[in-house]
Design brief:
alpha/beta, TIM Barrel, 2 domains, seven-stranded parallel sheet, four-stranded antiparallel sheet, 12 helices, binds 2-succinylbenzoate, binds magnesium ion
Length: 372
């Protein structure tokens, strides 16, 4: 069977606002809602869908929701509308001349992968090279008072989550870990600093070695690799890089210099699957495990994350926990819920989930249709 190239006939770009059930606090600030671009691409009566993972303000990385909406509308989508692509690599080549803006370009690339998989009548995981019908998941707990955090750890351990990640920042680190480790001596525990420390904090960070953490995620600056290598040489706990890895070259430099011994792959952060797959393979070559991070995605981004997590080097539990932890109602018809720390892979072609159009309408801030 041969497949004709897919001509992208139309796109629908929405801005969607979903309230969060509980505020989520990390070192850089507190989120109370999820505001995100939702993109649908159409070809041959098929739809592919993806969401952008940028934040309203550039506090995790430098992209912003407003900037991404404009870049998508004015530049990225006009590059692909009316054009035919035989595969995602051809689409990527059209977007390649532009620099940065990984989250915006990932939105287009990921929607195309969903479309492409559906056109071939295959689940996305099969096209990506993954297998299996469920993945191991952990949970990421935001910053809050220690007693409440202990309750949240207990609740998620009881639900079977395979790893507990605690957000930390200066002033909210050692006492938190002492309390959690005392109460849960055997749980797989990690921390995520979202770039809140510097090498001046080396002595404090070395004390984290006493808590048997699986890894410490992104302790130093979001655009740093070099200082992470210096820190890794001075502590036993593996460093896991998140923000610092936005390209394959970043991953190569980090691996070659031992700046990180685990990598969090967020497909949105690295510009799409093309780069995510290459980082996955490069890490495997260095015997460095990866896992799939999250950005409090709706069911669309969550489904993408689950498919990616079925690749063989995703050997650590990801952050793709149950949708019901974040939202009272999601924008998809299916439910993405973990049981005993296992998240089922949505079945069917592409990402395997479908938009709940009526509910989506009620949470849409703006919608525009673009065609060639
Ligand atoms: O650093 O992994 C992060 C959420 C927002 C911004 C950055 C991060 C996170 C999370 C939550 O840790 C992951 C999730 O549950 O989606
Ligand atoms: Mg992180």
């Amino acid at each position: 069977m041969t497949q004709a190239p897919l001509r992208i006939e139309a796109a629908e770009l929405r801005l969607v606002r979903l309230p969060l059930l509980t505020p989520f606090t990390i070192a850089t600030g507190t989120m109370t809602e999820k505001l995100f671009p939702l993109l649908t691409l159409r070809a041959d009566g098929i739809e592919g869908c993806a969401e952008g993972v940028m934040d309203p303000l550039p506090d995790y990385l430098e992209e912003t929701t407003a900037g991404a909406m404009a870049f998508l509308r004015d530049a990225l989508l006009p590059q692909v509308l009316g054009k035919a692509f035989a595969n995602p690599a051809e689409l990527n080549a059209r977007l390649a001349p532009w620099r940065g803006n990984q989250m915006a370009r990932a939105t287009v690339e990921m929607a195309f992968w969903d479309l492409w998989a559906k056109s071939l009548n295959l689940p996305l995981q099969s096209l990506l090279g993954g297998f299996g019908d469920a993945i191991d998941v952990g949970v990421s707990l935001g910053i809050g008072p220690i007693p409440g955090t202990l309750d949240r750890v207990a609740a998620h351990v009881a639900q079977g989550y395979k790893r507990i990640k605690l957000k930390i920042m200066p002033g909210h680190d050692l006492a938190l870990l002492q309390a959690v480790r005392a109460a849960f001596p055997d749980v797989h525990l990690t921390v995520d600093a979202n770039s809140a420390y510097t090498l001046a904090d080396t002595a404090l960070l070395q004390r984290l070695d006493g808590f048997a953490l699986d890894y410490i995620e992104q302790p130093l600056a979001w655009d740093d690799i070099h200082d992470h290598a210096t820190l890794q040489a001075r502590m036993a706990t593996p460093i896991c890089l998140d923000e610092s890895i936005r390209t394959v070259e970043h991953a190569r430099k980090a691996l070659q210099t031992d700046a990180g011994r685990v990598i969090n792959i967020k497909v949105g952060r690295v510009g799409g699957y093309h780069t995510a797959l290459r980082i996955h393979d490069l890490c495997a070559a260095f015997s460095v495990p990866v896992w799939c991070g999250g950005m409090l995605e709706s069911g669309i981004g969550r489904a993408h994350n689950i498919h990616l997590s079925t690749l063989p080097n995703f050997t650590r539990p990801g952050d793709t926990s149950s949708s019901s932890r974040y939202f009272a109602r999601d924008i998809i018809e299916q439910r993405l819920e973990a049981t005993t720390g296992r998240m089922p892979v949505p079945q069917g072609p592409g990402i395997g989930v479908t938009l709940d159009r009526d509910f989506l309408k009620s949470v849409t801030v703006s919608a525009e249709s673009l065609s060639a």
